[in-house]
Amino acid sequence: MTDELKITAYRCKKCGRIHYPFHDRCLDCLERDFEEIKPEGDAKLLAFTEIYNLPWGFDVRTLKIGVVEFSNHIKAMGQIQIDDFNKLKTGMKLKTFWEPVRVQAGEDVFGLVLR
Amino acid sequence: MRQVAIIGAGMIPFGRRDEDSLLDMLAYASLNALDDAGMGKKGVDAVYVANMGAGILQHQTSVASALVDRLSLIPAAADAVENGPASGASAIKNGVLAVASGYYDYVLVAGGEKMREIVGWKATDFVATMTHPEVEYPYGVTLPGMAGMFTRLYMEKYNLTRDQLIAVAIKNQKMGALNPYAHVEMIITREGIVDDPDSVVNNPMAADPLHLYDMCPVSDGAAAVVLCSLEMAKKISKKPPVLVAGFGQATDTHTLQERDDPTDLKAVTLASNQAFEMAKLTPKDVDFAELHDAFTILEIAESEHAGFFKKGEGGKAVEKGETSLGGKFPINMSGGLKARGHPVGATGVAQVVDVVFQLRHELGKDRQVKGAKTGFTLNFGGFGNNVVAFVLRRAE
Prior knowledge:
The structure holds two protein chains of two kinds. By secondary structure, chain A is mainly β.
């Protein structure tokens, strides 16, 4: 599944710190050389919420949002798509997909979906 | 560097102000501050205007130029300061630096925002534009959503309880009901928002685990202060000048996910420490604080990260009444953002105005911190990625 994710993170070639999103200089050592890396392995749920007052652009009642960490330590936000919010627990593993997360100007915007 | 004092403070009631434009509000608050300072027809050298969203919400830009024109303060220098919800304190900091440097003698700082003329989901979207445009915003995350995730992590790490969050909401709305400038003037009870079966309707979930009454309102409002050197203030001010004893500002990563420990509000700690160091004071020397409780969790977390309580103790302190009037460290006797309201560009200025009122001992018995000499403000931008703190002292 993770091969399909259009997420590119950046590992500092000097100190190894992983950045996602991109920074022009490493947050730790300020070096500018990065190796592009892709998410690997399971996605562990680090933080989550269900939002009831939504911003412009969403035609759903609520949105479940989470931050996950992949096996190679890339951390990313995504939309969680499960029916029962109460089943979510910090540290649980979720499957990852690259699917539409919203519509803007009549076009799908793709992003990380967690199930 | 010259020591800088606040010689004038003014505000207008926050809330829904359909009859006033953004510029009206900024002008009214500015005139209140100028009159409070006894400036008469005397001009100022520079004006700093804090505003986050006029370009988006009112389709109006260059609000600082518009305000000096409206107030006939021409040819004063005029700059607008946009730093999200920390715009207000950022603008004051810039004003303080300008006076401290000796370049300007008199500076007006005004902060304002008009947020109620758009529907709720547009306001939510406007505030969410602070999130990262590529890796956060597209998912629909909101600032309440950020706060919800942060709250769950804080509960897991520090055993923070929902009762402690509720205690913040009840305390601050009680104080807001006593504040003539507050947006929300409604006392709430635990029964009404938690125990009663109707509380499901009265206080619905907003961003799990946070409920409606954990949130500040969306408000219109403005506030302003007048700054000059302490030396000059002592000569001209009829009211006790308030010394800007210290200030600090620090930033953190744009996204929460890139913080090593997302429950660690590093910028709050750094900004607070800078302010205490400059003031040559410690948190123990401070009598009270105005903290940025856009969500109840933030009052607790900020009180700990600024050094007023140990980590995990802030929530207990609220429950025990230690942060209420008469407690050992009153917090948000204005009602805070929770009740005074949160017109984002105005908030950091309003916090300072509230501390000035306290330090001049001008409030009624029901809100005045007895014998207050030193106050603290913390203005929290983004989700803690840009934070400004002030230590303010009554100058005798």
